[in-house]
Structure formats: C-alpha cells, structure tokens
Amino acid sequence: MFGICELANIPLRFEPNDRSEIVSQVLFGECFEITENGKNWAKIKLHDDHYEGWIDSKQFRVISEEDNIKIKQAPLILSNDLIEYVSTKENLLIPIPLGSSLSFINIPEINTANYFFEGMQSQGIQPKSNLINTAFLYLNAPYLWGGKTPFGIDCSGFVQMVYKLNGYSLLRDASQQATLGEALSFIEESEPGDLAFFDNEEGKIIHVGIIMNDNYIIHASGKVRIDRLDHLGIFNAEINRHTHKLRVIKRII
Fold this sequence. Notes:
mainly beta; SH3 type barrels; endopeptidase fold (from Nostoc punctiforme); 2 domains; 6-stranded antiparallel β-barrel; about 10% helix
C-alpha cells in the first residue's frame, strides 16, 4: 500500500501514539510506502529519504501502486516560498510550507481534489551557489526536533530541505548525511554550500551546518542562525564561546 500527504505537514513519530517523539515530518505532496497498517496508526517509509516512522491513519490518503509510480516518475516540483496555498475550485485553501511537493497536482487522475497552485515553485537541479540563498529563507526559523519547515526545523532537516529545494537528495539525519560526499582536510578548502559536521564527547555526529563565505556557517541551533566557524568548531559571539566541536567537512556536490 502507498499513501500521500494532503495536509500542510503531519508528524512522523517513533512509536504509534500521540505522545511519542516526533522524528520527522511529512510535508504536503510527499508520498510513502505503508509497511504496517493498523486501525489508528500506519508505519510508513518515505520515498525521498527512506525514513521510517508512524503517522495517524486519519492524516493521509491511500493511493494505488500505479499512482505511486506515476508520481515517482513525474518531475519533482516544490513550493518555493515560506508559505503558499493550494486551492480547489470550491475555494478551499490549504496552506503549505516551503518545500512542499506539487508533482501530483499535474496528474489529474491522482489530483482528485482538483488542487491548483499559482505560487512560486522550484524544479530541477540548481547551481551550488544557490544553496546559501535558499538557506536564508529559513533564517530565524525556530529549532524543532524532527521539524522540516520554516515554522520549526532541526539541523539536519534544515540541510536536507535546502539541498532538496535545489534538486539534490540527502538522507535525513546528520549522522547519515556525514556518510555522503568527499571529506576535506581544512576549512580553507571549503566553499559555500559544503557541509560541516560536529560530534559529541562520545564521537557521535550530532550536528550539521552549511558553510558560507569568510568562515561563517548557517545552522539550526535554537533557531536557524549564522555563526563563526573555525578549526575547533562553531563560535557563538553572543555568548563568547564555542558551542559545537568540528568533526569533519564534507563536499556533497
């Protein structure tokens, strides 16, 4: 079985109950495989990054395998403003956040609600130089564990969505993203759009950010913010200390 999200976003939980930790979010238009289907909860695997978790059975629409294949084969079209709306002929408005998928809207047999969209959109692979411009769209977004929108986002969700909006697919968690790309030896070798990863005392990668020009980094910590980056890690000038310990710099594209 397969499904599609037709709400702004729905929480993807670690366990099948409303009190369980939110591990990620499913944005409007995202599709997934239903691996377990219970009365009130469904366990799913997202198509884009294969992330797994539980969602409320009342919050998605089941689609056929044939429709699922059509959506996967269609060009990926994403909303490209902080918040937009999809609407129907009956003037029903559904707000959708930055990075929502609009691909299914162009497939009439799947778009049964007759949604249409007239806002800003992005499609295809963009130049690497555009990554920072996209990252600025999330500036000051509050930190939210498991979040993927400008109204709440975590560090790896931020990086994943910035890359996605520019046509590049990344895994969901920082530790997973760190397995990708080519490691650089020095910060001086990096260029805007490369990723810096940070670890804890046990050596586990727990944080990621996007490198900017002149030894700055944009990342989600409390909010999406810009701080200094040096060979030790992230330096927060507001509190005059390092907040994250640098582990590795990776060039993904």
